[in-house]
């Protein structure tokens, strides 16, 4: 679950970022997002719950999502276009394969560059 202050704004962002859909219509303070192929709550595929808390985000967060991308710069640009924000992060190691962003509610997440699949023999 991610805590949010604006359920509509956060839902719009994560639906577009992940390609997820509402499990059922959102309430004023809660929504569960599922992969579009997921037909029941216990089917395979991770769900994402968003909940209005009424208090600001705290850092460091206890949990964050990683989004894996074959083309990290393009994925970062796409997510920034959806409303994500860059995070001024000073703790990157020299060989970092991730970039820290935050969603519309201040929840941090990483965009991780995937390794290319090895060529078949």
Automatic annotation (TrEMBL):
Pfam families: Glyoxalase_6 (PF18029). It comes from the Bacteria. SUPFAM superfamilies: Glyoxalase/Bleomycin resistance protein/Dihydroxybiphenyl dioxygenase (SSF54593). Residues 1-114 form the VOC domain. This is VOC family protein.
């Amino acid at each position: 679950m991610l805590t949010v202050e604006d359920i509509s704004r956060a839902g719009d962002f994560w639906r577009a970022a992940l390609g997820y859909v509402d499990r059922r219509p959102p309430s004023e303070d809660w929504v569960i997002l599922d992969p579009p192929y997921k037909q029941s709550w216990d089917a395979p595929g991770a769900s994402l719950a968003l909940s209005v808390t009424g208090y600001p985000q705290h850092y460091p967060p206890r949990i964050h999502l990683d989004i894996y991308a074959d083309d990290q710069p393009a994925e970062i640009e796409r997510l920034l276009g959806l409303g994500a924000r860059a995070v001024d992060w000073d703790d990157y190691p020299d060989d970092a394969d991730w970039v820290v962003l935050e969603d519309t509610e201040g929840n941090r997440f990483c965009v991780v560059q995937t390794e290319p699949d090895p060529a078949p023999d």
